[in-house]
Amino acid sequence: MDPGEELEERYDATLRAELAAPGTRPLPDGFPRPRLPAVLRQSIVAASKLADPGQLADFYCERMPRMLVDQILRGDDPGNRLLWMEIDPGRTPRLTAALRGIASSLAEEGLPPLPGLRDLLEGRTCAARLAAGTLLGSGLPLVNAYPAHRDAFRRELEAGAEPQELLDRRLSGNLAHEICHGPRRDLAGRPAPWLVLEAAAIHLGATAFPRHVVPRIAGEAVPGVALFVVVGEALARLFGRKALWRLCLGESIEDGLGDRPGRVLTAAGWQEWMLKPEPPFARDASRFVPWVKLADATRGPSPLAPLIDRAASLDPARSVRELPDLLQAAEAVPWPELPWWHEDPTGADAHLARAAVAGMSSIDVLEGTFQTQPHRPGRLHLDVEACLLWRDRDPRGVGAGEPARWIVPPSLCRRLWERGWRRSSIDGPDHEELLDRILEARTWTSSPS
Fold first, then answer.
1. β strands within 159-219, DSSP E
2. Which residues, 6+ apart, have CB-to-CB distance to 284 below 8 Å?
3. Mean pLDDT, to the nearest integer, of 1-28?
4. Is 217 within 8 Å of 361 (Cβ atoms)?
5. Which helix (H) or strand (E) holds 145?
6. How far apart are CA 219 and CA 144, in angstroms?
7. Where are the alpha helices (DSSP H) in 298-397?
8. pTM surpassing 0.90?
């Protein structure tokens, strides 16, 4: 039995034991039997060539199937029943808008629709079945529906919340995100870095329905994903939305972003995992700046070129062992020495600048459950040479996304730099003025004399 088959058997053994436990309902007719997602199987097998993958295997082959069975097949309180309630598209406007937005966004880039998306728009389903048909939901519990969340759902329902509205507000973002990962499928080629896969899916979801990232009301956003959105926005600018979203359709990172970027980013992903070889694989994006710098450096001349050439020529396993830390090396390179800084600003740069300022208007908090809420930022800070916008830390904020910070397009920052901008701090009422000034730089064609 090869390592992948051993992992699948271990997952299946856990699943069988959980399904046989007292108090567990059988899987309903027609419900797809959970399985270890292929992308995780291949990732764990690849990890075994670099280090002991024991914690990964324990997490995904034992803990996750136990949590999945508990989530969908045990208990009968209102929070559990919410997952099996038939979704009414007429009373779930966020979810409906997100699904339509996913379809239209892919179509605008000339990409095929995600398999099964039309059926979701036109057919009858529930949250449990909808998640079970997706790449990761085929074997993992739905995020944002863990026990603490279901307890919160129960309290809201007992207090009089309308079930369809509650599902739409609290679960539509995570359901749409799982759909953006695509349907359950086998994986061709090497698995992409988890950060890149998450960034692609989250970026598609944010494009389809922005309120699932920057909420207007508490609880409607996918919690804690802002820094993944930064990476997604930057990768979409560097390689194009079409290239990035091809990963959601099951294409390899080499086919999507190109062989050179794909191999280099894959090596960086494994190097980062080696620093802390434990689950979950969906690591936070706190090192978003060096990730984006490294991706940018794969596109043209920079001080990183010799290191990138070596990373692109080696098998990822050898890159991990033989090369210095790629992200650390990228972090040390100033933006003016990278390709993006020297390019003419584009419409994608203007979009990213708007997203950066909008991203200041949300905050991750822990109020019963971890969630992203609307926020009125006070003071914003712009460092032109660092190409970074951030707001003051808020004492309520938690997690890697506090304080909120975003990359401002280097091509725009270069033109601000040429006009004498270095650092600026802007009070709340002047946020739109700051955005207008950043966008105005797109029209400047040369430095002042």
1. none
2. 224, 227, 399, 400
3. 96
4. no
5. none
6. 10
7. 305-313, 316-322, 326-331, 347-358
8. yes
